[in-house]
Amino acid sequence: MAKQRRTDAGLDAPKGLRGAVLASRDKNSSDRFGRFTEWVARAMGTPGFLVGLTLFCVAWIAYNSWGPENIRFDSAAFGFTALTLILSLQASYAAPLILLAQNRQDDRDRVQIEQDRQRAERNLADTEYLAREVVALRLAMKDLASKDFIRHELRALLEELERDREPAASPAEEEPRQ
């Protein structure tokens, strides 16, 4: 006899993770319902839905107004009560589904705004760091010798060397004359 395996999520996970597995299943089911509400909200906002609903209402009213009297199911004399109830039911479900979809969108917007704020803070910190680095480089460049300064110093050294060399060369030139 083969043993029957239990497919309970609580037994498929290690002891410490059982609650996490069940919570993730709950999250997935609520996320699935959230995606469904967004789909409904998007579908109800399309011209296709409005045209379809209008055609449905026109067909309903036309059939119950001019169709064979013995097979009509909604009376024009009572103001198309069944149609009114169907549209009221549709509206009573549509409004909360649209609100749920808007709440999910608000949550996503809130997360996006927080991420944008954090990104802006990082960009500001990076910009400030780069500005400090540029200032440090400018200050370091001021401490560096320019070409004109180096040329001037080299000329001064060359003149000094030539001056040091001249007095030593003068007595040597005077000796052979004697």
Note down, in words, how this protein is organized.
The chain crosses the membrane at residues 39-63, 75-100. Keywords: Coiled coil, Membrane, Transmembrane, Transmembrane helix. It comes from Mycetocola lacteus. The chain is mainly α. It has one domain (24-165). Helices cover 81% and strands 0% of the residues. The protein is built from 5 helices and no strands. It has helices at 9-12, 18-44, 47-66, 81-143, 147-177. Mean pLDDT is 82; it is low at 1-9.
Our measurement of the CA-to-CA distance between the termini, rounded to an integer number of angstroms, reads 134 Å
State mean pLDDT (0 to 100 scale): 82
N-to-C SSE string, H for helix and E for strand = HHHHH
Profile the largest sheet.
none
Q: Write down the domain tally.
A: 1
Helix content: over 70%
Q: Decide which structural class fits the backbone.
A: mainly alpha
Strand content: under 5%
Using the CA coordinates, give the radius of gyration.
45 Å
Global outline: rod-shaped
Low-pLDDT runs of 5+ residues are: 1-9
Oligomer: single chain
Q: Would you report the number of β strands?
A: 0
Number of helices: 5
Protein name: DUF1003 domain-containing protein
Transmembrane segments: 39-63, 75-100
Organism: Mycetocola lacteus
Coiled coil: 103-130
What is shown here, in short?
This protein has 178 residues and is mostly helical.
Task: Looking at this protein, list some descriptive labels.
DUF1003, rod-shaped, disordered N terminus, 178 residues, 5 helices, coiled coil, transmembrane, mainly alpha
